[in-house]
Amino acid sequence: MGSKSEAEIKRTLGIDSWRNLSKDKMLRFAAMMPDLDTEVAIKIIEQFPMFKEFATETLSALERTHSSALIANKHSQDAFHEACREIREILKGQLTPDLPFEDRKYIIDKLMELSRMESEKDSENKKFLSENFKMAALGATALLAAGVAVLGGKAALDNRSGSDS
Q1: Are the C-beta atoms of 44 and 6 separated by less than 8 Å?
Q2: Domain residue limits at 25
Q3: Is the pTM of this model over 0.90?
Q4: Contact between residue 60 and residue 45 where contact means Cβ atoms under 8 Å apart
Q5: Is 5 a domain residue?
Q6: How many structural domains is the chain composed of?
Q7: What are 5-20's pLDDT values in tens digits?
Q8: Domain for residue 151, yes or no?
Q9: Which UniProt keywords apply (predicted)?
């Protein structure tokens, strides 16, 4: 593990005191934890009596943000596809048997273009969903890693203390 001191970590996070650690900076700290010396990380975490509550609140906030993004995305997708259905119906209504070939070809080309647009929107949506899931998972993983590092570090220190006796 790394050997950064508390003072170095505070400077990196741009804080003077652990009591003033914002949620954003707590997440940055959690992401730094795997590179920290276990004893230093534990010493810092012990200064946060509300770490568990913070982690729970942060995970809840991540879940709410993720859910809101998914709901907003679904509404956007539904509106887009509904608009495409309406345009498709209008264009299909224009395809009459007495329509000249050039006009029929134009309408069919527009229907094909509309299909390509829907396909692109579907691919874009899948990419959005994938990236959104990755970000939510990354946030949750950072918090879980912080908790595991603390618990694992405490267990390692307890084992070390027990074997020294």
Answers
A1: yes
A2: 1-49
A3: no
A4: no
A5: yes
A6: 2
A7: 888 888 888 888 777 6
A8: no
A9: Membrane, Transmembrane, Transmembrane helix
